[in-house]
């Protein structure tokens, strides 16, 4: 098993990465400092992994909340189910919440932990590739609003992250690919070598080769942990983790949550960001073709939805969290392996790019 530390002073925590960690009773209980424990999961994950985890928690006052499955349930209304369970069982401020699931469960449970009695400890047990490489690390928690993605939330760090790569074997292919989108992101924003490694090994990743999966989880967590350690609350460099997300979040909200998976929307959004970077003269045609080709090889979409028109996009992007004084700001690419900090883009340039995506300047 490999351990990595997210260095955040008194909020520092370990990420445990390995195979079979869900069968490690000592590890699963190492960071629980309370008698009361609430496991939050969903109706898909519960039959697969709930027992495997709760079997090691029999010495605690254990409660379980099983939420409905889907991005459309990442709402304030769903959080009420968690608060009702905590209050009806009279859980105290030292109780521990365990998030067992993908990014949706992690984001909701983390935000519930941040809010309940103004903050209780929580533990992330991510069960999708996307959650293992991205959402379980870094403390962004929250829920969606009908008018904007992740608009209600808090920065709230977990006590630890426990990753078991074995659980990736039960993920369906579409969900695996969605996770690969965020893995490609790390190569694009920070490491041309890692990007080239993904290009060379994409077949092994998609075939769920244990070594390939372990490698991308370790590399991705390493990149994310370093970025978060240097800028916990996104006042600067952390924003590069948002590559492709300004377009991607507009797609998710505009098309209705759950229509496109988050990773799929990020894949399209990253191709749009690459196209815009080319229009600004930062990337050349060959770079953009290379990026689009890798997403395609991963089985991800690269074309924006035809029914989301440019004006609609811009209205949705107008509430992006990176905006300042109403100016839309995006993360773009200087080259493969290096992202820009947020760049303000004139509405006319954005409209031109949205209307002519993939075509000559
Ligand atoms: N907090 C962050 O930093 C951050 C980063 C990236 C994404 N996110 C958020 O994460 C969410 C997307 O997360 P996701 O891609 O994990 O989606 P998800 O949580 O919806 O999980 C995807 C699907 O896989 C199922 N599933 C989970 N684990 C499984 C397993 N081991 N075997 C079989 N099925 C399994 C789930 O029930 C669900 O149907 C979005 O809401 C996105 O905004 C947050
Ligand atoms: O951790 C971060 O910082 C990220 O931006 C990671 C993203 O992959 C993730 O989708 C995040 O939830 C987006 O954050 P938001 O602030 O744009 O909602
Ligand atoms: Zn993301």
From TrEMBL:
Gene Ontology BP terms: amino acid biosynthetic process; aromatic amino acid family biosynthetic process; chorismate biosynthetic process
Residues in 3-dehydroquinate synthase N-terminal domain copies: 65-177
Superkingdom of this protein's organism: Bacteria
Pfam families linked to this entry: DHQ_synthase (PF01761), DHQS_C (PF24621)
Enzyme class per UniProt: lyase
Catalysed reactions, semicolon-separated: 7-phospho-2-dehydro-3-deoxy-D-arabino-heptonate = 3-dehydroquinate + phosphate
HAMAP family hit by this protein: DHQ_synthase
Family: Belongs to the sugar phosphate cyclases superfamily. Dehydroquinate synthase family.
Name of the molecule in the record: 3-dehydroquinate synthase
